[in-house]
């Protein structure tokens, strides 16, 4: 059996892959994706040095479930030793270790990792070679293509020679298949918006599997060939978020992605969903939004290929590079500036509203509390059994032998 077939057979011949996404591919979303046709998942990108040095960061990354297999844990690194040491810690919980060579963001440039390592072939060879020698799991790489097809193929062959067992290629083209292709499995990634794109990509690129990121965020059922209601999908995701808990900010982020087009039609729900403090609140607001949307018959804000209550991709506005007229460019630049100013104003308004909401809650909490019966200067604890503030409570019971329920709750929250 060939190296390509051997690895894919071991994993059950996965064809549909969920991309690694920071704040986007947490355990709840991975399990949600598997419910709708995902075969192979990735963890969010993990910074290897932070993973080794920061205990809280390390704990936040360690979200695994036995049902979430096969799973690839992705790290970014520019150190052979740090990459290998961090990967060794997660070996029992996953099926492969991925080196991110595709992240194009500014933070990757400053940290010299991701796509900004693709020109340092000597260092990459050391990182992959060191890991493949010292780890039991296969090493994979997520890469971007070079402008020249020949250089991309040479790059892929170098990674294979260094010890990579699988490549995920962002921007793979039909010219890359054939006799010049590497012998290890290749996953194609980039602009997968509909299920038809999945089938066409497999056919035209000869890839072993197809990965989706942005398209999956807006339609989590893309690999099942479905385009369900955004309300059904949002509520279904909340079910997984309750089963596999994560931070509420991540949950809200996913809900906003699914409801993107619907919120453009019903912007009055944007703030209520954004300020929801519990999953139960999110469920309530989504149900209310569904009731309002039941009266909709067409799209009024955006020209979409489908009704706004149906899951569909968000297509970014195309940039017209053919404009050479200075006046046209000036008008376009002014529109961009106005739009940026508008976005800044909206962000400031959201922040101000959020601050006011927090202050109102603090004021309400303070108004309901009475002073400490011992010092009469501080407010008593909400759950203190002897109506004391925290300072007086410690003075009255320095050995901590008679802790009240409120303090026990606080201590557990502090040290957990």
Automatic annotation (TrEMBL):
Coiled coil: none annotated. Residues 333-360 have a biased composition (Basic and acidic residues). The keyword NADP applies. Its cofactor is FMN. It catalyses: 5,6-dihydrouridine(17) in tRNA + NADP(+) = uridine(17) in tRNA + NADPH + H(+); 5,6-dihydrouridine(16) in tRNA + NAD(+) = uridine(16) in tRNA + NADH + H(+); 5,6-dihydrouridine(16) in tRNA + NADP(+) = uridine(16) in tRNA + NADPH + H(+); 5,6-dihydrouridine(17) in tRNA + NAD(+) = uridine(17) in tRNA + NADH + H(+). Gene3D superfamilies: Aldolase class I. This is tRNA-dihydrouridine(16/17) synthase [NAD(P)(+)]. It comes from the Eukaryota. Residues 18-266 form the DUS-like FMN-binding domain. Residues 315-360 are annotated as: Disordered. It holds the Pfam family Dus. Keywords: Flavoprotein, FMN, NAD, NADP, Oxidoreductase, tRNA processing. InterPro entries: Aldolase_TIM, DUS-like_FMN-bd, tRNA_hU_synthase_CS. Its EC number is 1.3.1.88. Belongs to the Dus family. Dus1 subfamily. GO terms for molecular function: flavin adenine dinucleotide binding; tRNA dihydrouridine synthase activity.
């Amino acid at each position: 059996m060939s190296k390509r077939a051997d690895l894919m057979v071991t994993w059950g011949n996965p064809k549909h892959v969920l991309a690694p996404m920071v704040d986007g591919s947490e355990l709840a979303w991975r399990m949600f994706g598997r419910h709708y046709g995902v075969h192979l998942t990735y963890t969010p990108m993990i910074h290897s040095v932070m993973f080794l040095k920061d205990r809280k960061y390390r704990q936040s990354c360690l979200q695994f479930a036995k049902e979430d297999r096969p799973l690839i844990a992705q790290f970014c690194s520019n150190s052979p030793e740090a990459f290998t040491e961090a990967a060794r810690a997660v070996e029992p919980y996953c099926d492969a270790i991925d080196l991110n060579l595709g992240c194009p963001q500014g933070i990757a440039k400053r940290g010299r990792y991701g796509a900004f390592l693709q020109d340092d072939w000597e260092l990459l060879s050391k990182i992959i070679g060191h890991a493949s020698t010292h780890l039991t799991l296969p090493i994979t790489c997520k890469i971007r293509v070079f402008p020249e097809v020949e250089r991309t193929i040479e790059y892929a062959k170098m990674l294979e020679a260094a010890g990579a067992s699988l490549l995920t290629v962002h921007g793979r083209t039909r010219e890359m298949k054939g006799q010049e292709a590497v012998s290890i499995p290749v996953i194609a990634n980039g602009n997968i918006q509909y299920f038809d794109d999945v089938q066409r990509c497999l056919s035209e690129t000869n890839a072993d599997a197809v990965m989706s990121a942005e398209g999956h965020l807006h339609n989590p059922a893309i690999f099942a060939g479905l385009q369900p209601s955004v309300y059904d999908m949002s509520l279904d995701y909340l079910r997984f978020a309750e089963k596999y808990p994560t931070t509420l900010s991540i949950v809200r982020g996913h809900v906003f992605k699914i409801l993107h087009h619907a919120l453009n039609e019903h912007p009055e729900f944007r703030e209520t969903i954004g300020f929801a403090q519990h999953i139960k609140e999110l469920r309530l607001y989504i149900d209310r939004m569904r009731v309002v949307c039941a009266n909709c018959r067409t799209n009024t804000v955006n020209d979409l290929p489908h009704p706004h209550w149906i899951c569909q991709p968000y297509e970014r506005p195309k940039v017209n590079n053919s404009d050479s007229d200075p006046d046209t460019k000036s008008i376009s630049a002014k529109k961009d500036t106005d739009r940026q100013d508008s976005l800044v104003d909206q962000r400031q308004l959201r922040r101000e509203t959020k601050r006011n909401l927090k202050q109102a809650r603090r004021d309400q909490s303070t108004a309901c509390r009475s002073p400490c019966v011992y010092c009469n200067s501080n407010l008593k604890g909400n759950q203190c059994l002897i109506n004391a503030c925290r300072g007086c409570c410690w003075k009255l019971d320095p050995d901590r032998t008679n802790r009240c329920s409120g303090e026990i709750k606080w201590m557990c929250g502090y040290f957990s």
